[in-house]
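Please check what follows.
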Amino acid sequence: MFSRTIVGSLVALFALHAAAVDKTSNPDLVAKLKTAATQLDRLNLLPSDSDWLYDFTSHPYYTFQPGGVINANAATFPATVGYGMTLAILNLGPCSMLPPHYHPRASNFVVAVQGTTDTYMIEENGARRIQETLTPGKMTIFPQASIHMMVNT
């Protein structure tokens, strides 16, 4: 059983991350993409080749300094609507961690670019914990709604 201090700390931690959300760049387009009947209808809503390209460096909060996180997801990159995924550029500083959190609407794909990062994930009560070590060129997936965290070792 968790103590009240631990539960309070976890609630505070999740509240902190609840404030870190992406603003939907084009709500009308996202709504239309969600209700498109066919893939052809989706393609007609994204008529330009550039609609299929996401430039992390053009995001207003882009930084590749430690602590920087930029997400490509339905809010920031409408072409991802319906695929249930988020791809992020994250720079964890030396000996730092991304605390336990979850994404209720999307799976998170993580690719290591440099360094060594330990990842931890549990999908639901009773499931085993999955732990992996990412080094450059390796990838892991955090399924939708799984609780996960990362530590830069």
